[in-house]
Specification:
The complex is a heterodimer of chains A (about 375) and B (about 280).
Chain A (H helix, E strand, L loop, with lengths): L29 H17 L26 E7 L4 H12 L6 E8 L3 H13 L2 H4 L2 E6 L5 H10 L4 E4 L5 E2 L3 H12 L3 E15 L5 E5 L13 H6 L8 E4 H7 L11 H13 L1 E14 L5 H4 L2 H16 L9 H26 L1 H18 L1
Parallel strand pairs in A: 1-2, 1-4, 2-3, 6-9
Antiparallel strand pairs in A: 4-8, 5-9, 6-7, 6-8
Chain B lengths: L1 H12 L7 E6 L8 H14 L3 E6 L5 H11 L5 E5 L3 E3 L3 H6 L7 E9 L21 E5 H7 L12 H11 L3 E12 L13 H17 L3 H12 L4 H16 L31
Parallel strand pairs in B: 1-2, 5-7
Antiparallel strand pairs in B: 3-6, 4-7, 5-6
Helix pairs in contact in B: 1-2, 7-8, 7-9, 8-9
The chains are: A alpha/beta (about 375), B alpha/beta (about 280).
């Protein structure tokens, strides 16, 4: 399997002119518009000094520097501390992973003191081998993006994945990302997401829990298609991992002005620049709440519409970088639109024939009367 | 093992657990644990508060029912937890499973499985259910004494737990599902959203379906299933049907129970309880 990697500009070749050298030859061009923000971020990071060597994808083993080993994956788990039943299961699924090469950043967003203590107690109950790799980080203020950005700043893994506190993963979630990382060359690694409907309930004994109301389904495509994703999101957050370098080198962050769809926005921006590798494996189960306080219900349909518009208009304000073979797809789309318009005209013409005939007859009749 | 040790540690910290023994049964051809690995496991288990750890290499595949019975031969604890090797327990598994056992009529308490929850229905208040999966179930000793273990003669890999639960219910015990007691059971999904099933699952699930119908006084259903498997395009189904026919001719099928249908449930969709949803729609 090869990624539909489409750009290697983030790894400048030694000695060749790059945008990091303030080379203004691309200024005002679509390429300049596309790379400008990335290079501006790079300049901030390295000053105005020339970057002579491409940064290797695999980081140096930090053990040699006396630091804890760098995990492969940093898992950003947002929680408001209100769903202990599901977060318990999300953590259990992580503890049971076939690859334990990860860290969990439990991002406690606006969680009150008691809830924070409950989270600590829950994590500690898993034993030091697991709890030692879970960091609970208090996050205050902001919307859904804020904890993710805090997590990115704190993450140490080569790759970063999002697992919300009501989602659950299969045993090979981490291992699948890890297995495909080399082939992804720093691009997005995408698994096949499954969804299952749930609703809140009270369990025997009185604990607030949830119950499953449907079988798992895989309504999203097995293969990532950028054009389809530009129309709407078809990849829930628990089913992809992004290289940390995408955030560090490209300066990408989750847009804190978006109330929802922050994951779609980042996925599109990174996918365009770094490409996507499909694993074809179902490794995560996204929970779709029939009722309750999930983002589907907490945010109004107007907020969802406005967020979608904002994501699209932000992308639309810059040139788009499309993967190979997109032209054929675009031509087919335009041709199909053309055919539709021609058919529409034909149908309108046929439907309006009686009226046109009537108008012609009326004109003739009136001209005879006049004469 | 580490997860189970941790569950023991958590239960002991809450003063909810007396002496604990772990018994590992190995059905593989060669022993899965070297003495060194077993030694390391034993030290780790002791650190977690496990009083005794044993390992028995059976030398042959006894199946789940046969394996459970062999391990039960040497146990005398007041309750027994059955646990699959491809499962991982929640830290509070033992604490949560013990809650319904306060009721003396409850004989078996079943844990909830994630990520793919068993679709079997249960009473939302009492947790009562038709049968308990032994992937992780806490069984009162008196149940084992009353019904004499698993029926390894009829069931090799599947439905031994359905049969065990139904016999426990016939003996007057109740079987409950406890959703707050969780295990991670390493199952996988296909891209169509259906469960990945192995050849062994296909074969032994078919065998168990016929055995269960026969044993619980539905011989006509057992025969119908046998005829269906005989004409199946799957060679595994044809083979299992032929084996069942041979046992019928040899008169080695199990004795019939529950003639009035007090506990046994045979639903038109092939399930042994009402299901809330299906994995194979």
């Amino acid at each position: 399997m090869s990624p539909n990697s489409i750009l290697t500009a983030t790894m400048p070749v030694t000695g060749s002119p790059t945008m990091t050298e303030h080379d203004d030859r691309w200024e005002g061009t679509p390429l300049g518009d596309l790379l400008g923000p990335i290079c501006a971020h790079r300049d901030e990071e390295v000053g105005t000094e020339r970057v002579d060597d491409a940064e290797p994808f695999r980081e140096v083993n930090s053990e040699s520097k006396g630091e804890p080993p760098t995990p492969f994956l940093s898992v950003l788990m947002r929680t408001q501390g209100r769903r202990l039943a599901t977060i318990h299961e999300s953590l259990l699924a992580m503890a049971a992973q076939t690859s334990q090469n990860f860290e969990v950043l439990l991002l406690a967003h606006g969680v009150p003191r008691q809830g924070f203590d409950d989270l600590h107690e829950l994590v500690d109950s898993f034993g030091l081998e697991f709890s030692g790799r879970v960091r609970i980080i208090a996050v205050e203020g902001g919307g859904r993006s804020r904890p993710l950005n805090v997590g990115i700043d704190e993450a140490r893994g080569e790759y970063i994945a999002i697992l919300d506190d009501d989602d659950v993963v299969f045993g090979h979630w981490v291992a699948t990302f890890e297995h495909h990382a080399i082939d992804a060359h720093g691009g997005v690694i995408r698994c096949v997401p499954a969804e299952q409907s749930v609703r809140p309930t009270t369990w025997p004994g009185g604990e607030a829990g949830y119950e499953i109301t449907s079988r798992p389904r895989c309504p999203w495509p097995v293969r990532f298609d950028l054009l389809d994703h530009l129309y709407e999101n078809r990849t829930p957050p628990c089913s992809f991992a992004l290289a940390r370098r995408s955030f560090n080198d490209l300066g990408i962050r989750f847009d804190e002005s978006l109330p929802v769809l922050e994951d779609w926005d980042v996925l599109l921006r990174v996918a365009m620049l770094e490409g996507v590798l499909d694993t074809g494996e179902v490794t995560a189960l996204w929970r779709k709440w029939d009722t309750g306080d999930s983002s589907t219900f907490v945010h109004s349909s107007k907020e969802w519409r406005q967020a979608r518009k904002a994501v699209i208009s932000k992308l639309d304000s810059r040139p788009l970088l499309l993967p190979a073979h997109s032209l054929v797809r675009l031509q087919a789309l335009v041709a199909s639109q053309d055919r539709f318009q021609r058919r529409k005209k034909l149908v309108i013409r046929r439907l309006s024939t009686p009226m046109r005939v009537a108008r012609r007859l009326r004109r003739r009749f009136l001209s005879r009367v006049d004469s | 093992m580490r997860g189970l040790g941790n569950a023991v540690r958590v239960a002991k910290r809450h003063d909810q657990l007396g002496p604990v023994s772990f018994a590992i049964g190995d059905c593989s051809g060669d022993p899965s644990l070297t003495p060194e690995v077993f030694g390391a496991l034993e030290r780790s288990a002791h650190d977690d508060g496990v009083d005794h750890l044993s390992f028995e290499h059976f030398g042959s595949n006894l199946g789940s029912a046969g394996g459970h019975n062999r391990l039960l031969e040497n146990s005398d604890e007041t309750a027994v937890l059955t646990f699959n090797p491809d499962a991982y327990p929640s830290p509070d598994l033992l604490l949560q499973l013990a809650v319904p056992l306060v009721d003396k009529e409850v004989g078996i308490v079943e844990a909830k499985q994630i990520p793919l929850e068993h679709p079997k229905d249960f009473d939302r208040t009492s947790g009562e259910t038709s049968w308990a999966s032994t992937a992780a179930a806490l069984i009162r000793r008196s149940v084992i004494e009353a019904i004499g273990g698993f029926d390894a003669d009829a069931f090799f890999l599947y439905c031994d737990d359905v049969d065990f639960s139904w016999r426990a219910r016939l003996a007057g015990f109740r079987v409950t599902h406890q959703p707050s007691a969780r295990i991670f059971h390493d199952k996988r999904l296909t891209t169509e959203g259906t469960m990945v099933v192995s050849d062994a699952e296909i074969y032994y699930a078919a065998e168990a379906a016929m055995m269960l119908a026969w044993k619980y006084s539905h011989p006509e259903l057992a025969m119908r299933l046998m005829r269906g498997f005989s004409s199946s395009p799957l060679a595994l189904h044809r083979r299992v049907a032929s084996r069942f026919r041979a046992r019928m001719d040899e008169e080695t099928l199990p004795h019939r129970l529950d003639p009035d249908g007090h506990v046994a449930e045979f639903h038109p969709d092939g399930n042994y309880a009402r299901h809330r949803f299906s994995y194979n729609d």
